[in-house]
Amino acid sequence: MGWQSRIEAALTEQHRTAAYRRRVPLSGGNQRQLVHEGQTCLNFSGNDYLGLSRHPAVVAAWQRGAAEHGVGSGGSGHVTGYSEVHQRFEQRLADWQGYPRALLFISGFAANQALLAALLQPEDRVLADRLSHASLLEAALHAPCSLRRFAHNDAAALSRLLAKPVSGETLVVTEGVFSMDGDAAPLKALAADAQAHRAWLLVDDAHGIGVVGEQGAGSCRAQGVRPDLLVLTFGKAFGVSGAAVLCDDATAEFLLQRARHLIYSTAMPAAQVCALDAALTALIEGDALRDRLQQHIRRFREGVAGLPLQLAASATAIQPLIVGENQAALDLAAGLRARGIWASAIRPPTVPPGSARLRLTLTAAHQPGDIDTLLEALHAACG
Ligand code: PMP
Question: Residues where N6-(pyridoxal phosphate)lysine occurs (predicted)?
Answer without folding.
Answer: 236
